[in-house]
Design a protein that fits this description.
This protein is of the alpha+beta class. It is 17% helix and 51% strand. The protein has a 3-stranded antiparallel sheet with strand order 1-3-2. The mean pLDDT is 94. Pfam families: Dodecin (PF07311).
């Protein structure tokens, strides 16, 4: 039986929300094997003096649970 695990992350970017989401997936990929999907949950930003200074994306990444377990 295939089981999928989901973890929630926050990615950040100085440029845009797309890069913020991509950064979250890129960093997760360093420690999570076989990421199969991503869901964007929320987009926010930090504002200073009326200007967006940092974009943030709350994302969930999905990956399979290994079949062989102890």
């Amino acid at each position: 039986m295939a089981i999928t695990k989901i973890v929630e992350l926050v990615g950040e970017s100085k440029d845009n929300w797309r890069d913020a989401a991509a950064n979250a997936v890129k960093e997760a990929n360093k420690t999570i094997d076989e990421i199969t999907g991503v869901e964007i949950l929320n987009l926010t930003a930090d504002v200073k003096d009326g200007e967006i200074i940092e974009y943030k994306a709350n994302v969930q990444v999905a990956f399979p649970v290994r079949e062989q377990r102890k």
